[in-house]
Write a structure and sequence with these properties.
By secondary structure, this protein is an alpha+beta fold. Among the domains are: 115-218, Thrombin, subunit H (Beta Barrel), CATH 2.40.10.10; 224-317, Roll (Pdz3 Domain). It has helices at 11-27, 65-68, 206-218, 237-243, 259-263, 282-288, and strands at residues 31-39, 45-54, 60-63, 71-77, 83-92, 97-102, 123-128, 136-153, 156-166, 178-180, 186-195, 198-203, 224-225, 228-234, 247-254, 270-274, 277-278, 298-304, 307-313, 316-317. The strands form four sheets. Strands 1-2-3-6-5-4 form a six-stranded antiparallel barrel. The protein has a six-stranded antiparallel beta barrel with strand order 7-8-9-12-11-10. A hairpin with a 5-residue loop joins strand 4 and strand 5 (83-92). The longest helix has 17 residues, at 11-27.
């Protein structure tokens, strides 16, 4: 007597399986295995690997920046057997996102969703090229939201905000692949294995869509730079009531010679507003310091020693080596 005859296969399992199968069938044609060509310091050719997701029918795919780091091109292998040469259009190490383009189009693009709408416990499906096994599918749930992933480019570091934590099985080679919701919409780009049973994905949201647009258009992402490091914290109750905000970005360090130092910002200052927009943490400030902010006056409201002052700073361009 098998499990079905004994009544051990509940309807919920059938529904779960149907969702995963449906996502895999819908999304798999858009996910490619990448074989990345790069040279070491001696000029010897090396091969790296990862995954990528088609985002436009004319040959564009998104992947992780670390997958293509040091490479200029390679081959994208699709489930239908096609092997297409690709070149790197642009990579942004501070968001760990990159865009590549195949030599020919006719791709099946994935539908992009909104990672900001995910909820803990929601079903997600990962599709990629783990351990060289192309088109592999794993499923799990959103284990956590609001995580932060530190990235580095040269001397600069940045926190990728709202990183998605999942228990869907991820292995080396999954990086750059798709994390999808139950509707088959890509809500994240798998980026890291943080431990046994813990995978991380960069969310697809308004911020990352803007990054992808910049990479498609310019091949790079321009960011403003103040030269401060700090973290969000609640304001003292009396100050919060007086100025009408609950949180701010407490400055822990001001880099010598930076725009922040020139403007007179000091460790211990709490930035609560920038050009009329509330600043609750480092992410709020990062979202303001985009290309259009470079070289322009940025007016900050700052809480210093219990008093609110105004500081005007001119961001320069962050150069990621």
């Amino acid at each position: 007597m098998d499990g079905r005859e004994r009544g051990l296969e509940p309807a919920g399992l059938d529904a779960y399986s149907s969702i995963v199968v449906g996502v895999a069938e819908r999304l798999a044609p858009a996910v490619a295995a990448l074989r990345v060509h790069r040279r070491d310091r001696r000029g010897n050719r090396q091969i790296g690997s990862g995954s990528a997701v088609a985002i436009a029918p004319d040959g564009y795919l998104v992947t992780s920046a670390h997958v293509v780091e040091g490479g200029t091109g390679g081959a994208a292998i699709f489930p239908d057997g096609r092997e297409l040469a690709f070149t790197v259009v642009g990579a942004d190490r501070l968001s760990d996102l990159a865009v590549v383009r195949t030599a020919s189009g006719s791709l099946t693009p994935a539908e992009l969703g909104d990672g900001d709408r995910l909820r803990v416990g929601q079903l997600v499906v990962a599709i990629g090229n783990p351990l060289g096994f192309a088109g592999s599918v794993s499923a799990g749930v959103v284990s956590g939201l609001g995580r932060a992933l530190a990235t580095r480019a040269g001397e600069h570091t940045r926190l990728i905000e709202n990183v998605i934590q999942t228990d869907a099985a991820l292995n080396p080679g999954n990086s750059g692949g798709a994390l999808a919701d139950s509707g088959g919409r890509v809500v994240g780009v798998n980026t890291a294995l943080a431990g046994v049973g813990v995978g991380l994905a960069v969310p697809i949201n308004a911020t990352t869509k803007g990054i992808l647009t910049a990479l498609l258009r310019d091949g790079l992402v321009r960011r403003g730079h103040l030269g401060v490091a700090g973290m969000g914290q609640p304001l003292p109750p009396r100050a919060a009531e007086a100025i009408g905000v609950q949180r701010g970005l407490r400055v822990a360090e001001v880099i010598r010679g930076s725009p922040a130092a020139t403007a007179g910002l000091q460790p211990g200052d709490v930035i609560v507003e920038a050009s009329g927009r509330p600043i609750r943490d480092a992410g709020d400030l990062q979202r303001i310091l985009v290309g259009d902010s470079i070289g322009r006056f940025l007016v900050l409201r700052v809480l210093r020693a219990g008093a609110v002052i105004t500081v005007t700073v001119i961001p320069d361009e962050l150069k990621a080596a």
